[in-house]
Each structure stands twice: as structure tokens, then as C-alpha cells.
Amino acid sequence: MRLAFLSIGRHIHTERWIRWFAARGHDCHLLTVQPGPIEGVAVHDITTAGPGKPWRYWRSLGRVRRLLADLQPDLLNTHFLTGYGYWGDWSGFHPNVLTVWGDDVYVTPFENPVKRWLARRALASCDALTGDSVDILRVACRELGADPRRAYRVLWGVDHGVFRPAVATERRSAFGFGADDVVYFSPRSYTQPYYNIDVVIEAAARVREREPRARFLFAGYEGDPAPFEALVARAGLDGAATVVGRIPHGEFAATINACDVFISVPSVDATAVSLLEAMSCGKAVIVSSLASALEWVTDGETGRVVPPRDVDQLATAMLEYGARPDRRRAHGTAALARARTEFGFEANMALVDRIFTSLVDARADWPESASLEALGGGAR
User: I want to staple 194 with a disulfide (CB 3.0 to 4.6 A). Which of 125, 252, 267, 323 is the partner?
Assistant: First the structure.
């Protein structure tokens, strides 16, 4: 197949997704305003110049239309509802599979009536919809008008050959953590307040008062770490906390394995890939009580669940894991078992391949077990 993708360039989700199809001999083309090389993929820059964002956006739409007319792909896969999703809709190209990511469904469409109208248009026009949780698909269908009969849960997926339990003594030492320390790892973006890193820092300060072995690692895959370094200093965590920027994905598994507890407590989120990776490494996890997290984490079995922005309950869960290594191990073992049944990258990409093939070849080989209706979220 010749496949065209409209997506965020220079992003690991985009690159892993498209490389999977390129490795299987498909002719893959990425249309993006963030161009960068991807082995085996033709990357097309759709960036345009002009006085003002609406004019540039309209001119880029023209470039998208011309490229699709020239390429004549068998299918268009549009990633991210807002922005790229609008281009996919207004291009008029079909079949178009729309893949939603997170705040493009949960946040942006509800900021004003125009964005909501654009989001509803894009969701109504796509031929199939994929998202990484039942919850994000449910919101797209119930609140934004997508068709639940062609909505499928597809995870970004985990490479279990890389993300698996392992000893990472060298990596642990590189961060300055000792063998007897209890290390808590928070790896969320520094750009959005809804990731609640400030709450994790406040809870960490309370934990440190009662658990002298506690150490903390904060990493952000985007944004400026400086404000959080200042928060750490004001919290009195100097010497106990390390704040870094982006950790390369090739080093992420070792970093997870160098730590004891993984923390992700946003107020808004889809299924966090880093959560799936931590569970695949058999780590104890603490998550916020979002529907997208509760699909994977059961409180007291595969991790601990706390309300968003609840410092008291977060600190309590952290202290529990600090004092109970047996509980960390038990929850981590249960999390690993869950991860190995559903999180595999290859298995999830095979679902996408079936969706594409069903649309292009009309074989009707839809992955019904992954459909929103089969997973219990289809009722409007």
C-alpha cells in the first residue's frame, strides 16, 4: 500500500508508528510542519509562510491537497485531532483514519465553539477512529459526535524486548542514587500545568520528612525544567531530588529500572505510554484516578490510585511503597502480568494494519475485539 500520514514530525509516537509500516514494505509518506528524517519514509514539509496563523494554515491546507493529489495514496492516516485533524478533514481525502492522542480530545475542543465545531467536523468525516483508551474514544463519540461503530482502542504499545525488569545499578549510580535509597520517578512534560508536577514535588517534601532514604527523579520530555528546579529548591529537596530534561528513549528503560516507584498523577490525560512502560518493567506505579489510567491500574493490585492534586493521598501512597518493599514487588509483578497481555507494540500495530486493510481492500477484517462497542463504551 501507499500510505500517507498527517502527523507531528520529530515525535517518537509518529516515528514508531510509521516505521512499522515502512518496515513491512509499504510506501510511506509523512506530511508535517515539523519535518525530520525517518528511515524508509518520504517526509514532506507542509510549512508555509504568511501574515498570521489562519492564513498560514489555509496555505498549508493547499499544500496538503496538492501532495495528496500527486501521491494518490491508498489511505490517509491523520494523527492528532486538532490541527492535523482539521487538515485531514478539509483535504477531503478518503479513506482517512483519524488517530487521537490526548488533549486534542480532552481539552482543545472545549476551549471555544469554533474549535468544538472543527473537532466535530473532523471526527464525523473520518472513516475509522483509533485512540489509546476506551475513555478517550468515549469522549470523542459521546461528546464530539464520532461514530462508535468504527472506533477502536489501539495502544501506542511497548517493546517488551526493551521494557522488561532488569538490574540498572550503573544507571542508578549515574543519577547519584544509592542501593538503599527508595527512588521515585516522575517523567511528565514540563509544559502543561495539568501534569501536576508541583503536586508531586510538594508530596515529595512531605515524604522526605518521614523517609530519609527517599530520593526523587523528575524528567520532562518537553519544556523548561528551570521552574521545577526552583520548586524543588523551595521545597527543601536539594540533595534528594534530581531534575533533568528529556531522557532519550533509548535510555528510558534503564532509567525506569533504576527507580523503585513510578508516579504519573495528571488531572487530564490519555493512556500515558510511560505508565505502560513502567508496568512492563514490573515497577510499582502511582497514578491519578482518571478513567484512562483505571483501565490498566487497579488500586491495591497493580498499583496505587489517588485523586488528582491530592497531596495528602499521594504522599501516603509514596510512604506506603517506601516502607513496604514487599508491596512494591507484589504490585509490580501484577502490573507486569497485565502489561504482557495487552501492551505489546507489535500486537497493537497489527490492529491498525487490519483497519487499514479493511478500508483499502474491503476485506471486512475489522478488529472487532478492539472496538469501542466490544469494550463496553459504545452506548451514546
Answer: 267
Task: Please indicate, yes or no, whether residues 239 and 364 belong to a single structural domain of this protein.
Answer: no
- Report residue 7 as a C-alpha cell: 502527523
Q: What is the pTM of this model?
A: 0.93
Edge-first strand order for the sheet with 182-186 is: 241-244, 214-219, 182-186, 261-264, 284-288, 304-306
Q: Quick one: pLDDT band at residue 380, thresholds 50, 70, 90?
A: very low
Q: Output Rg (C-alpha) for the chain, integer angstroms.
A: 21
276-310 pLDDT, tens digit per residue, is: 999 999 999 999 999 999 999 999 999 999 999 99
Is residue 164 domain-resident?
Answer: no
Angular region, 158: left φ>0, alpha ψ -120 to 50, beta rest: beta
Q: Give the model confidence (pLDDT) of 337-347 as tens digits.
A: 999 999 999 99
H/E stretch holding 274 reads helix 273-280
CB of 3 within 8 A of CB of 15?
Answer: no
Question: Do 83 and 114 sit in the same domain of this protein?
Answer: yes
